[in-house]
Amino acid sequence: MNVKNESMLVYAVTDRAWLNGKALEEAVEKAIQGGATFIQLREKQLSYEAFLDQAWKIKKVTEQYHVPFVINDNVEIALAVDADGVHVGQKDMQAGMVRQKLGENKIIGVSVQTVEQALSAEKNGADYLGVGAVFSTSTKLDASEVSFETLQNICRAVSIPVVAIGGIGTSNIAKLKNSGIDGVAVVSAIFAQKDIQKATQELAALCKEILKKPF
């Protein structure tokens, strides 16, 4: 499934750890109202039933606002709620295998750190790539950093959209200018903020500025 480049602008990856008990679906709605263009539900600790319940709640919000919604890693949950797709890492199922399970009309995103991984993911049917960590991040402690040069090379090497991820916020997003990315994927820059809607608005404005694309 072709992913529109503009839907990659502000790619919000959920993390309930920052919400102090607030409902995740409400936080997601605030992010979308602030300009989030893509939502990934990322849950590592929930039981299948709780994950499924949360996925249905998020899907209801993303459908209302016509924003693409993918599940991190879990193909079964994605199929169960008929999400728009799945995002997988290098240690997860290969894109080609995910495509067989999900079918042709779903979005598949793949995390990559090298040009070789990027080309392989594209060849195996990935619709977009997440590249990182571009800065050090507290959200994913095992993520090694990707240099600006590697990020540029990946963007040049593939014809599918690329989002940068890892430690991105309003203070450093300008450093990604001229990298070739189509947007940024963020976690704490949205979900750890007191005013999620305002934080997303600021991030979206800065991202448009560094991309200089006619949205």
Description:
- This protein is α/β, with parallel strands linked by helices.
- The protein has one domain (5-211): Alpha-Beta Barrel (TIM Barrel), CATH 3.20.20.70.
- The protein is 39% helix and 16% strand.
- Strands 1-2-3-4-5-6-7-8 form an eight-stranded parallel barrel, surrounded by seven helices.
- Helix 4 (95-102) links the parallel strand 4 (85-88) and strand 5.
- Helix 1 runs parallel beside helix 2.
- The longest helix is centred in the N-terminal third of the chain and has 18 residues, at 48-65.
- It is globular.
- The protein starts with 9 loop residues before the first strand and ends with a helix.
Write the layout of secondary structure elements.
Blueprint: E1 10-13, H1 24-34, E2 38-41, H2 48-65, E3 69-72, H3 75-81, E4 85-88, H4 95-102, E5 107-112, H5 115-123, E6 128-132, H6 148-157, E7 162-165, E8 183-186, H7 188-191, H8 196-211
Parallel strand pairs: 1-2, 1-8, 2-3, 3-4, 4-5, 5-6, 6-7, 7-8
Helix pairs in contact: 1-2, 1-8, 2-3
